[in-house]
Design a protein that fits this description.
Layout (H helix, E strand, L loop, with lengths): L6 H14 L2 H7 L3 E6 L2 E6 L2 H23 L4 E6 L7 H12 L9 H5 L30 H12 L8 E5 L5 H15 L4 E5 H13 L3 H9 L3 E5 L8 H16 L3 E6 L11 H7 L3 E5 L4 H13 L7 H10 L4 H18 L5 H7 L1 H10 L3 H11 L4 H5 L5 H17 L4 H7 L5 H17 L1 H19 L1
The protein binds adenosine-5'-diphosphate and magnesium ion.
The site of magnesium ion has 4 residues, from helix 7.
Length: 468
């Protein structure tokens, strides 16, 4: 026992958070226990390094603020990581039964098994999953907060919380990472049969099975999964027979409360050449999007990636990279890899100047892709000699409605924004209005080649304005 005991303050602060936060959020992030006190410090335990990092990032300041308000003392918190082992005999019995019953498909009990890491025999990595795609290495920011919470919830209670979960967003924003992290977490903590495939692989395997008359095997394989993870489902567009098979697989798994997770490069409502009934299945559970990360998140991602490297890159260089590459995380990583390779080769310390030199091409193209809605609206308004407020207005005269549709079309082509976001930027319109504008211009371009030339001209002007 130490001379200090601040437990009473901790209990009070915990009670306040419990009142203020939604229940799901509270149980996810305040899953910690009071351990001890030392001078001006409260020591709490959490069950993983991941929880420690994330809780610190999200709540440390707020917790310490509340502790000060409650106690009048400047109390700090410290974490220790303690893997949980269950003590209740009931639960222990339960776990033993299930670990003997390896083929059990009753994933309702998966939740019981999840926290019981220590009693499991060690197994290797899942053959289809990249072990580096785990929750510990995934940085949480405002751009992906909701998606991470959903994935975490699933990795604790598969089949019970959000089913199916569909994660959508532009390229290189972490969809595959998050999906595989869910798979890895479940693989580590349960005996569930987890299948990860890309939609492309699923399609090829389906066709192959048809040709080789092995459909029964194909059906059996997918329909006996407990957790089915299908990456990049936009690939199913136009693949009618595969869609049909997936529809039946989905229904069977869904009926049995098996967990299904999809990723897609756009919201399902924007998928084309997809049967309505399959689309409605994709939309049935929870759809969450990944946005582009802000500067601080980009910086944190670079710092995280550096933790595993032996070479050092000065922080000012990392900051400069995070500032200049805002399009997506994949580009960010590619830039870092380039700097690391150069440092390893030359054995010299990386400077901001050298880094700028090395990454000149990357910065150029990334800036080009960094076209904003404002720039597009302004360029189009100038081009047609109308005002930006006209573009955002509800006026329907042709001289205004046409440029508006053009701007909507270009925004959809040149930015990573969703139609919902675009709707907001066009005077608070519904996302279907954006789609309507887009489709109208698309039709007109086909009918009138001179419009195509106008569009190219506008694209050029927008890129120039972006790079200024
Ligand atoms: P997507 O499937 O959306 O195209 P990926 O999941 O392949 O994107 O992510 C691209 C790269 O960026 C991966 O190497 C991934 O680890 C990394 N990445 C994306 N988001 C994050 C994040 N929030 N924290 C850490 N790494 C990330
Ligand atoms: Mg991917």
């Amino acid at each position: 026992m130490s001379d200090w005991n601040y437990k009473i303050f901790w209990d009070e602060v915990l009670r306040q958070f419990k009142q203020e936060l939604p229940q799901g959020v509270f149980s996810m992030w305040f899953n910690m226990e009071y351990e001890d006190s030392k001078e001006n410090t409260i020591i709490l335990s959490v069950s993983s390094k991941f929880l420690e990092t994330q809780t610190k990032q999200r709540y440390q300041k707020e917790i310490e603020k509340k502790l000060f308000e409650t106690s009048g003392i400047n109390l700090k918190i410290e974490f220790i990581v303690k893997e949980k082992t269950k003590t209740s005999t009931d639960e222990t019995d339960n776990i033993e039964v299930h670990s003997q019953d390896k083929n059990s498909q009753n994933n309702k009990n998966a939740g019981n098994r999840i926290n019981n890491k220590t009693s499991k025999p060690k197994k290797g990595y899942h053959p289809a999953l990249n072990k580096d795609y785990n929750f510990d290495d995934f940085i949480i920011g405002q751009n992906n907060n909701f998606a991470v919470n959903a994935a975490l919830a699933i990795s604790k209670n598969p089949g019970e919380t959000y089913n199916p979960l569909l994660i959508y967003g532009g390229v290189g924003l972490g969809k595959t990472h998050l999906m595989q992290a869910t798979g890895n977490a479940l693989w580590e903590s349960t005996e569930l049969n987890i299948i990860y495939v890309t939609a492309e692989h699923f399609t090829n395997e389906f066709i192959d099975s048809l040709n080789k008359k092995k459909m029964a095997d194909f059906k059996k394989k997918y329909r006996s999964s407990d957790v089915l993870l299908i990456d990049d489902i936009h690939f199913f567009q136009g693949k009618n027979e595969t869609q049909e098979e997936l529809f039946h697989t989905f229904n069977e798994l869904y009926e049995k409360n098996k967990q299904i997770v999809f990723t897609c490069d756009r919201p399902p409502s924007e998928l084309k050449n997809l049967s309505q009934r399959l689309k409605s299945r994709f939309e049935r559970g929870l759809n969450v999007d990944l946005q582009t990360p802000g500067f601080e998140t980009r910086h944190a991602i670079l710092l995280k990636k550096m933790e595993k490297k032996t070479v050092k890159i000065p922080d000012e260089v990392l900051e400069m990279v995070a500032k200049n590459i805002s399009s997506n995380v994949r580009d960010l990583e590619a830039a870092l890899t380039k700097l690391i390779a150069f440092t390893e080769l030359t054995k010299k310390e990386m400077t901001v100047e050298t880094a700028k030199d090395l990454l000149r091409d990357v910065f150029g193209s990334s800036r080009q892709r960094n076209v904003t809605i404002d720039i597009i609206q302004k360029t189009v308004a100038d081009y047609f000699s109308i005002s930006i407020s006209d573009i955002k207005s509800k006026k329907r005269t042709k001289s205004i409605a046409f440029p508006r549709h053009v701007a909507m079309y270009l925004c959809r082509e040149m930015t990573e924004c969703s139609t919902t976001e675009l709707g907001n930027e066009f005077g608070g319109r519904d996302h279907t209005t954006i789609l309507h504008g887009f489709n109208k211009i698309e039709e007109q371009i086909t009918a009138d080649p001179s419009l195509d030339t106008t569009m190219h001209e506008l694209e050029k002007l927008i890129k120039e304005a972006t790079n200024k």
